[in-house]
Amino acid sequence: MDIAITTPPSRRKYYAWGGAGLGILVLTLALGRLKPAVPSVERQSILVDTVKRGPMVFQVRGTGTLQPVDVRWITTGFDSRVEKIRVYPGTPVKADTVILELSNPELQQAALDAQWQFKAAEGELISAKARVQEALLDKRATLATVKASYASARMDLDANERLEKEGLVARQVLMQARGRAEELTTRYQIEQERLKIGEASLTAQLAASSAKVEQARALWLLKASQVEALKVRAGLQGVLQLLPVQVGQRLAPGSTLAKVAEPSRLKAELRISETQAKDLVLGQTVSVDTRNGLVQGRVARIDPAVVNGTVLVDATLEGALPKGARPDLSVEGIIELDRSADGLFVGRPVQAQAYGTLGLYRLAPDGSEAQRVQVRLGRGSVSTIEVLDGLKPGDQVILSDTSAWDASERIRIK
């Protein structure tokens, strides 16, 4: 008689778990042997360039605006009020063209007061000159009287000395004549000195009065010029660019009244990235694109400061300006830094940095796929970059953004 042998429930559960584990292991090994799918891309959707060898021009690009070379900002130097606007922006002006008229009653009154003070000082000077002349005449008259008396006394003394020798006059009379002559001699000398001192003193008094007149005149001219400045003139032949005021507006000292510029003489102000500005030097050639034509120029000034990651460069423009060139027009400029007679270069890939290493996809000879290679780069230009290692002339590489395929060493091209 057969006896049925039954497997215990615990052993059946053990066999089930073991079979499941073995299945998972086999599946894992099978998946591990599978190769990842190669991504594919349409040829029309990517940018491809060929590595070349030959002359290379190193350039940097910047954007900016055209700005006038000759520009004048007009500000007010005192409190005032806008009374009348004569000229509006866009109007050609000459240096003496009145742009607007201001008013300042206090300043106008001060100018009148200064004028009256000047006239009063002039009158005082005239009066002082008259007094000085009168005083000098009195001193000269006194000197003339003393001189005449002195001459008469000398004649009497000479006569008495002759008569005394002949015994015709008493010695006492001679002594009296001699004493009078000596007295008048001394007095004549004193009057001469007094006249000299008086002339010097009176001249100094006139100089002081003249200085007061000049001081009053200078103050009057200053106030008069300030009143004249209430008629705001262009001060430069050109075009009125800006007039940020309105009739009736109150203005504080230092307020901007207008901007006048010469539109026929323009320069380009370009902003260059600070990472590309290290090779800039004065005199480098610049090509400025005004969107309506090109004009050549040269680097004339490089700002020593970096502002918002850029360096400001001024370029003088040579030759005739393209039609439509005007102040504040947006432009693009390309500055030539250097030239290489023989270099290996390719179009600048996305995210390429000068003197860096970058993974680029190099196309196979048949163009069906591309393999990633490490490329060492050199100096960069606007649209090209120097190749130091990793590529050779004739190689074709993808310049487009390939960050989506970073996990793949190769891609298929359809």
TrEMBL record:
Q: Which UniProt keywords apply?
A: Coiled coil, Membrane, Transmembrane, Transmembrane helix
Where it mainly occurs, coarsely classed, is other
Report whether Transmembrane helix shows up as a keyword of the record.
Answer: yes
Which top-level group of life is the source organism from? Bacteria
By its UniProt entry, which InterPro entries does this protein fall under?
UPF0194_transport
Tell me the compartments it is located in. Answer: Cell envelope
Q: Which GO terms describe its cellular component?
A: cell envelope
Q: Which residues cross the membrane?
A: 14-34
Q: What is this protein called?
A: RND transporter
| Organism this protein belongs to | Mesoterricola silvestris
* Organism placement in taxonomy: Bacteria, Pseudomonadati, Acidobacteriota, Holophagae, Holophagales
